[in-house]
Structures are given as structure tokens and as C-alpha cells.
């Protein structure tokens, strides 16, 4: 397995130009994300079937050639379990790979579990046992050892023959276009749209709060999100979610009160004054401006029997399609459909997964009839 280490824009441009002459290019990223909001990129791996490049983005000033490759619609980009890679590309290159197919999704259409690992598939399809001992590497450290570089290179070197085999099977079974559609759906879900003012809706346990308490939680969650973005800190390293809930629930306005409720001491010392100001200001919010109480689908009448009848329908389609039930229609996706119909939220951007792409004719329309 031969590869080149790319550390300058000229070599990068040549490698990307060669890759753009191919029908498909294999991509992967190595990054670190421990305390930061955004993933910190260490390497981009690229293999076009001939040339394998390990691109050290930490030392390259101009990464335009990667952006051009990502945006080149004549070249299919192939990744495995692309979720976090999409965030990496969006944050570091302000682009996502288009078009893109995910070999994990491809495998799911062939009856594999929804989150089958790369090493498992390589072992099954190529009879190669990958060494995963370098998975926990600090990819920002330099120099990287030969073993670490080999590990990174293997992730795209074996992706090519794996992709070829999966694609042949999908074309034979008629699922190839479905796999492309599903991969695009995965990309659209991972593109982050920052809406700090809606951050309170993502806080677990927010449904337990009254509208008055939510009027405190909402600006607190907005502040935490904006601080996390500005400082590039993971949300819980700014202020823990459970602590934010306690502040909103009990209207805590002093460091002593926060510590008494067992809020993280370091965060309290750093931010208690800011938080106290937000709480005091929120306390004067007019009732007409309080957020609505957050209704949980599971608490609505008839939910349990409705969910069961839809799941029964899913299981009928599973028998005919041989797709895993969690892949065809996960609990979250079924709930998304129920919520869409019951709450009459028909805005195009809220269209549930089951009412778009390959799922709609296969299953979605059947479920919609049952709901109506």
C-alpha cells in the first residue's frame, strides 16, 4: 500500500486534479473532538484507485483544490459512516461532498445492520483483517508514526474494492439508486444550521418545565449555544445541560444557590454573574411571550396504539423487502410521521423521512393511509 503525504498546495492541486478525472474517489477524515464544539481536522485521506494521498491540512494554507473536488458533481465521493465527516467538511471547507454515497448505507440495503463498521465489512467482503489499534490516535499530534499513517491510508485503500463489490450487488438487487438517495438524506441531516434561539428545544428534560420556566431556559440555552460557538467549546463544557435545567427550574440567581443545587463549580465560578443577569431579565418576560409548553408525543391520547399499528405495518414490509426494521423505519422516523400528521406541520422543510425518497412508495404512503 503506497501513499504520498501532501503538505503543500501544489501537490494537493495535482492530486485533486487527477482525482477529478475519475468517476469516483474514496474519502475519509481523521479528526479530534474532545472538548471542542467543532471537530478539529488532522488529516484528509483520498484515494482515486491509483494515487492514495494523506493530506495534512494542518500545514496547507490554501485548500481550494479540496473544495473544488467536493463540489465537482461529475465525481462520486465515497465515504463510510459519513456523519461526522460531513461536519468536518462543512466546518473546514464550507462544502460537503456532492454527490456522495456511504458504504454503510449501501451495506444496510444488502441486509447488514444499520451501523455495521468498516472493519467488519472489509473482513466479510475482502477477507482482510484491519488493525484498529490506532483508532484512538491524537490526529493533531506531529509527527504521526508510520503505523498511524498506514492505519489512515487503509481506511480509503480498502474502501475502493469494498465499494465496487457493494455497488455490483446493489445494481443487481435494484437498490443502487435508493442507496444514493439515502446517502444524500444523511448528508442533509448532518449539515448544521445554527439556530441558537431554538437551542432550548434540544435540552433533555425541557418538556418537564412550565411555560414560565421555559421563558428562563430559552435565553439561557441561547447564551450557552452562542458562547460554545464563539469559544469553540462543547456545549457541556460551557455549562452542563442538567445544571441549566436546574437554574431555569428554580430561578437561581446567585453562585451560592447554583452550588447548593450541585451545579458544576468551575462553570459557576466562571459564568454565575452572566447567568444571574439572564435569569433576572427573563423573570420580567410578559406571559404573552412565554414559550409554549413542550408536548411529548408519547403523552398524547391514542399514541401507543397508533404507534403499534404503524409498527405492525412496517414489519409486513420488512418481510417483503428484507431490510432491517430499524433501517426501513426507526422509532424516531415513525414518531416523526405521527407528529407531522397530528400536529399538521406540513411545511416542506419538516417533511418526514418516511414521506420522501425511496421510503415513500415502499412504506410511507401505506402508513399515511393508516394515520388518516
TrEMBL record:
It catalyses: Exonucleolytic cleavage that removes extra residues from the 3'-terminus of tRNA to produce 5'-mononucleotides. GO terms for molecular function: 3'-5' exonuclease activity; nucleic acid binding; nucleotide binding; ribonuclease D activity. Its EC number is 3.1.13.5. CDD domains: RNaseD_exo. The keyword Lipid biosynthesis does not apply. InterPro entries: 3'-5'_exonuclease_dom, HRDC-like_sf, HRDC_dom, HRDC_dom_sf, RNase_D, RNase_D-like, RNAseD_HRDC_C, RNaseH-like_sf. It comes from the Bacteria. It is an enzyme of class 3 (hydrolase). Coiled coil: none annotated. SMART domains: 35EXOc. It is found in: Cytoplasm. GO terms for cellular component: cytoplasm. Pfam families: DNA_pol_A_exo1, HRDC, RNAseD_HRDC_C. Keywords: Cytoplasm, Exonuclease, Hydrolase, Nuclease, tRNA processing. Its cofactor is a divalent metal cation. The keyword Phosphoprotein does not apply. One of its GO terms (biological process) is tRNA 3'-end processing. Residues 210-289 form the HRDC domain. SUPFAM superfamilies: HRDC-like, Ribonuclease H-like. Exonuclease involved in the 3' processing of various precursor tRNAs. Initiates hydrolysis at the 3'-terminus of an RNA molecule and releases 5'-mononucleotides. PANTHER family: RIBONUCLEASE D. Belongs to the RNase D family. This is Ribonuclease D. The gene is rnd.
Amino acid at each position: 500500500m503506497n501513499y504520498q503525504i501532501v503538505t503543500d498546495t501544489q501537490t494537493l492541486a495535482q492530486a485533486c486534479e487527477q482525482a477529478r478525472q475519475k468517476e469516483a474517489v474514496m474519502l475519509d477524515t481523521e479528526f479530534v473532538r474532545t472538548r471542542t464544539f467543532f471537530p478539529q481536522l488532522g488529516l484528509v485521506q483520498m484515494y482515486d484507485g491509483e494515487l492514495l494521498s494523506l493530506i495534512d491540512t494542518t500545514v496547507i494554507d490554501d485548500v481550494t483544490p479540496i473544495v473544488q473536488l467536493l463540489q465537482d458533481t461529475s465525481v462520486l465521493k465515497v465515504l463510510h459512516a459519513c456523519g461526522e465527516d460531513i461536519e468536518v467538511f462543512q466546518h473546514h471547507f464550507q462544502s460537503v461532498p456532492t454527490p456522495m454515497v456511504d458504504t454503510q448505507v449501501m451495506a444496510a440495503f444488502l441486509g447488514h445492520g444499520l451501523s455495521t463498521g468498516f472493519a467488519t465489512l472489509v473482513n466479510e467482503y475482502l477477507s482482510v483483517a484491519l488493525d484498529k489499534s490506532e483508532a484512538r490516535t491524537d490526529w493533531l499530534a506531529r509527527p504521526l508514526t508510520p503505523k498511524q499513517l498506514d492505519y489512515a491510508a487503509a481506511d480509503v485503500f480498502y474502501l475502493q474494492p469494498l465499494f465496487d463489490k457493494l455497488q455490483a450487488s446493489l445494481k443487481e438487487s435494484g437498490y443502487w439508486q435508493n442507496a444514493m438517495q439515502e446517502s444524500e438524506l444523511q448528508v442533509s441531516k448532518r449539515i448544521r444550521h445554527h439556530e441558537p434561539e431554538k437551542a432550548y428545544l434540544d435540552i433533555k428534560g425541557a418538556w418537564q418545565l412550565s411555560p414560565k420556566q421555559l421563558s428562563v431556559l430559552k435565553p439561557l440555552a441561547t447564551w450557552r449555544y452562542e458562547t460554545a460557538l464563539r469559544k469553540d467549546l462543547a456545549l457541556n463544557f460551557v455549562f452542563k445541560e442538567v445544571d441549566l435545567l436546574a437554574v431555569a427550574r428554580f430561578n437561581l440567581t446567585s453562585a451560592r444557590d447554583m452550588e447548593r443545587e450541585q451545579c458544576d463549580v468551575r462553570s459557576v465560578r466562571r459564568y454565575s454573574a452572566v447567568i444571574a443577569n439572564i435569569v433576572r431579565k427573563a423573570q420580567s418576560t410578559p406571559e404573552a411571550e412565554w414559550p409554549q409548553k413542550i408536548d411529548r408525543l408519547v403523552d398524547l391520547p391514542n399514541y401507543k396504539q397508533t404507534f403499534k399499528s404503524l409498527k405492525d405495518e412496517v414489519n409486513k414490509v420488512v418481510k417483503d423487502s428484507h431490510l432491517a426494521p430499524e433501517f426501513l423505519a426507526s422509532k424516531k422516523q415513525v414518531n416523526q410521521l405521527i407528529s407531522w400528521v397530528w400536529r399538521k406541520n406540513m411545511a416542506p422543510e419538516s417533511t418526514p423521512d418516511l414521506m420522501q425518497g425511496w421510503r415513500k412508495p415502499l412504506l410511507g404512503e401505506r402508513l399515511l393511509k393508516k394515520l388518516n
